[in-house]
Amino acid sequence: MSNTDTENSYDPFQHKLVPTKTFDELKVGDRFPIPSRTLGDANFAAFQLASGDNHPIHYDDEYCRKLGYSGLLAHGFQVLIQTAPGAGLFPHVLGDIMIGFIDQSSRFLKPLVSGDTVYPMLEISELKRQKSTGIVTLKSTVHNQRNELLMEGEQRFLVRLG
Predict the structure, then answer these.
(1) Residue 142: which of 99, 115, 114, 110 has the closest Cα?
(2) Whole-angstrom Cα distance, residue 130 to residue 58?
């Protein structure tokens, strides 16, 4: 077989990380961990640049120390983005049935401090069948290395049935 034959026979749509599931194969309680990561000064600087948020609690160590914190505090959205489904396997499990991200909500319970390691998790909490589509609701959480729940919320996705 020549290289041309091999190149022409390759289908990038078959290059899957995990087996995909239909809506009916999903189950309440299915969990989708997102890899842990330690957030340091570079993460905080990148988020500040992207968000334009210039409050000193997010970038001034001395300001934070004067307020009694051990380091920079993450913006709530910086905590929220740790639960981006694409950072884990959830959208790969859905594959082609995914239509789109509908909405999200979140509650911030404790501060994320620079140097913390986060452990994001997504878990199916509800599956709602409609006529030709379904809604997958995910519970989203972020814990730190001290097993403190920093954030909890919900994300909803519209998917194709079948």
Answers:
(1) 110
(2) 43
In whole angstroms, how large is the CA radius of gyration of the chain?
20
Domains and CATH numbers, the chain: 19-160 (3.10.129.10)
Comparing CA positions, the residue from 112, 134, 136, 113 lying closest to residue 124 is 136
Task: Convert the pLDDT of each residue in 115-147 to its tens digit.
Answer: 999 999 999 999 999 999 999 999 999 999 999
Residue 126 and residue 36: Cα distance in Å, rounded? 25
* Rounded Cα–Cα distance for residues 93 and 32 (Å): 9
Distance of CA 24 to the CA centre of its chain: 23
The number of CA neighbours under 13 Å toward the Cβ of 68 is 1
* 9 vs 87: which has the higher pLDDT: 87
Q: What are the angstrom distances between the C-alpha of 97 and each of 8, 30, 47, 102, 134?
A: 26, 17, 31, 14, 10
**pLDDT per residue over 5-34, tens digit each?**
556 788 887 777 888 999 999 999 999 999
Retrieve residue 41's tokens.
């000064």
% of the chain at pLDDT higher than 70: 95
Is residue 137 within 8 Å of residue 154, measured between CB atoms? yes
